From TrEMBL:
<dbReference type="InterPro" id="IPR046347">
    <property type="entry name" value="bZIP_sf"/>
</dbReference>
<dbReference type="InterPro" id="IPR004827">
    <property type="entry name" value="bZIP"/>
</dbReference>
<feature type="coiled-coil region">
    <location>
        <begin position="80"/>
        <end position="135"/>
    </location>
</feature>
<keyword id="KW-0175">Coiled coil</keyword>
<dbReference type="GO" id="GO:0003700">
    <property type="term" value="F:DNA-binding transcription factor activity"/>
</dbReference>
<protein>
    <recommendedName>
        <fullName>BZIP domain-containing protein</fullName>
    </recommendedName>
</protein>
<dbReference type="Pfam" id="PF00170">
    <property type="entry name" value="bZIP_1"/>
</dbReference>
<feature type="domain" description="BZIP">
    <location>
        <begin position="69"/>
        <end position="132"/>
    </location>
</feature>
Length: 157
């Protein structure tokens, strides 16, 4: 029967020796303090058992390689999460700006309507003023009309 190797998050297969580490009652025998530190740093200290070293020198490098791959995968995962948070912040900022733009557009529309109304009112007042001046001219002639225009200009200032 062929042994199947479990996969780490990134799809890297454990080596045959590490497969036996995961199978109780067999345990991992390590030759160096560096391998122990590496397994602890990678969060795999449960693989360590207190069996005296049996001279498996190549196991140290195999464990170090797997630990390095695990470290790289954790770093990639952290980078992915960081990128997700960044995209989320950018999306929130974009939505906030979009809301501000919508408010400004509404304000511009209201101001435009107010300006149109005031322009229309100004036209009406101007027409009314012209008709009053025409009536004064008809009633009192040119002399009084000029006097009225001058006095109304002084009153406005």
């Amino acid at each position: 029967m062929e042994a199947r190797f479990p996969k780490v998050g990134c799809g890297i297969e454990f080596m045959a020796l590490l497969w036996f580490c995961l199978t109780p009652p067999l345990g991992l025998t390590v030759n160096s303090v560096a391998t122990v530190r590496c397994l602890r740093r990678c969060g795999r200290s449960h693989l360590l058992v207190s069996i005296p070293p049996q001279g498996l020198g190549s196991l140290d490098s195999a464990v170090a390689c797997v630990c390095e791959e695990l470290r790289k995968e954790r770093k990639r995962e952290a980078n992915r999460k960081c990128a997700q948070r960044k995209r989320k912040r950018e999306q929130e900022a974009f939505q906030e700006l979009e809301g501000s733009v919508a408010k400004l557009r509404t304000e511009v529309q209201l101001l435009h309507e107010e300006l149109t109304r005031l322009h229309k009112e100004n036209k009406e007042l101007d027409q009314e003023n012209n008709s009053i001046q025409e009536e004064i001219f008809k009633m009192h002639g040119m002399k009084l009309s000029a006097k009225f225009v001058i006095s109304s200009a002084v009153d406005e200032v």
